[in-house]
Amino acid sequence: MIRRIAIALTALAAALVAPAPVARAATHGDGPVVRTQAGLVRGETTAEGRQFLGIPYAQPPVGSLRWRGPRPVRPWHGVRSAQGFGDKCVQTSSWDPGYEQPSYTEDCLDLNVYVPEGSTHRPVLVWFHGGGLTAGAGQDVVPDTFARQTGTVVVTVNYRLGAMGFLAAAGLDKEARDGVSGNFGMLDQQAALRWVRANVGRFGGDPGRVTIAGESAGGRSVCTQLASPTARGLFRAGIIESGAYGDCAARTHPDAVAAGAAFAKKLGCATVACLRGKSAREILQAQGGFDWGPVAGGAFLPVQPEQAFARGTASRVPVLNGANKDEGRLFAFSRFDLTGTPLTAEQYPAVMRQAFGDQALARYPLSAYPTPTIGYATALGDSVFSCPALRLDGLLRTRAPVYSYEFADRTSPPFASLRNLHTSFDFGATHVDEVQYLFKHFGLPSPFNAEQKVLAGQMVRYWGSFVRDGVPWAAGQPPMPAGPAVVLSLKTASKGGNTLSATVRQEHQCDLWDRASSG
């Protein structure tokens, strides 16, 4: 995840068609069976409840359907196995567990459903994974324990990534009804939400009580879906974790088309037909160095998210939004210490001025930090994550409740991808770390001590109550604030416990970064 996030930051009812054969044979003859609109699926029962994995929510976007909006999944005969994850969408390899090899599979529009035992009409959480919109999959988190503890049906989603999900081109614009291409991955997410609306009741969920959530690029996806008029009515609340970077800005249509032309030239193509004739391997090899993400200007996203929030045209739903105290340490480590070249005191002034400007060096003097890398990381996290999250709070709060948090457990164990590095680097409460307090990250248990287990339980209650009732609370803990300029700081008991903070803007030097953003 280090490599793929760092690269990314820089840089409908089923159709009435003939039934398709079952693509995946059942692995077991037993297990719970649910009838979806497209056909029967067989899941399995675990110690945490029931789970149904690898359910297709759209037709495979292959051949002539590559770089087209998602089409309703074709019905199938018989009982389809839902006892194993579907394929990951096209992406490079990484250090993340299970990502040792690249994926060249375009048939990847699947989702996973985790169902607690018990009554029906349960609230629903739909999770969009992170990975810089170039990597990751729904299976990156296993939320079965969260589902049981909160009484929530949880759905995790695959969506198209990189060039496959976000290529804009003049030729593709001609195929689009609104003349704007490049949002295929975002449209996949909406197709998954429409599948949830049509089918989740059959799994015990309430289609009228859907919360969308995600971390990093998944949080950015939530921010984008809040601003999209074509997503209205598909959810009643949103959770944005470390997803406000870049103020959720989308690419402009002219910039996206220009990048698409450069991408096509790199592949030696002058037509869409030529691009569709390239293999997934060739597409993946060519996509490096480009900024892949949503495109503003069409029906999906008529204006930038920031404008939609300011004008009041975005979905007016409650939002839980926040960031981690030391977001930048992951990226600073990746740039410097990971390569064996830690930032030095001699290099610090020039690197800081080049990255952040002269004023930042005065605000982040080297003497205030244990190492130059940590000083750089602090400025990076403040400017890219913490202050944009607080700005987003202000924009959203004028239209609906916004509940603000900061994950500040500096005792946190590094998340799963970092633990294998066996490094002594102090990651603090860095990017991604909070995910393991909510779910099994990459399906792995976290090595929490007793205090961290208590904090994880409290966070699950905050998030679970928000999904259930639209208000985050945990018995015996401070309420997550909905007022301006105050956040709930999440920490273990020996570090002060969960407390309300009215100084978070000052701590992250947001006056500096807000001026830079507005300028």
Category from helices, strands and their pairing: alpha/beta
What is the radius of gyration computed over CA atoms, rounded to a whole number of angstroms?
22 Å
Q: Would you count the extended β strands for me? A: 18
Low-confidence stretches: 1-8, 10-28
Number of helices: 18
Helical content, roughly? 25-40%
Shape: globular
Mean pLDDT: 93
Largest beta sheet: strand ordering: 3-4-6-9-7-10-11-14-15-17-18
Give the amount of beta strand, in percent. 15-25%
Rounded to the nearest angstrom, the distance between the terminal CA atoms is 32 Å
Identify the quaternary structure here. Answer: single chain
> Largest sheet, described in full?
11 strands, mixed
Spell out the blueprint of helices and strands:
Elements: H1 2-9, E1 33-35, E2 40-42, E3 44-46, E4 49-56, E5 79-81, E6 110-115, E7 122-128, E8 141-142, H2 144-150, E9 153-157, H3 162-166, H4 170-175, H5 184-199, E10 205-215, H6 217-227, E11 237-241, E12 251-252, H7 253-266, H8 272-277, H9 280-286, E13 295-296, H10 305-311, E14 319-324, H11 328-335, H12 348-356, H13 358-363, H14 372-397, E15 402-407, H15 416-419, E16 440-441, H16 450-469, E17 487-490, E18 499-501, H17 504-507, H18 510-518
Parallel strand pairs: 2-5, 7-9, 7-10, 10-11, 11-14, 12-13, 14-15, 15-17
Antiparallel strand pairs: 1-2, 3-4, 4-6, 6-9, 8-16, 17-18
Helix pairs in contact: 6-10, 11-14, 12-14
Description of the structure:
There is one protein chain. The protein has helices spanning 2-9, 144-150, 162-166, 170-175, 184-199, 217-227, 253-266, 272-277, 280-286, 305-311, 328-335, 348-356, 358-363, 372-397, 416-419, 450-469, 504-507, 510-518, and strands at residues 33-35, 40-42, 44-46, 49-56, 79-81, 110-115, 122-128, 141-142, 153-157, 205-215, 237-241, 251-252, 295-296, 319-324, 402-407, 440-441, 487-490, 499-501. With 519 residues, the chain is α/β, with parallel strands linked by helices. The protein has an eleven-stranded mixed beta sheet with strand order 3-4-6-9-7-10-11-14-15-17-18, sandwiched between helices. The protein has a three-stranded mixed beta sheet with strand order 1-2-5, with no helix packed on it. It has a two-stranded antiparallel sheet with strand order 8-16. The two termini are 32 Å apart. Residues 1-8 and 10-28 have low confidence and may be disordered.
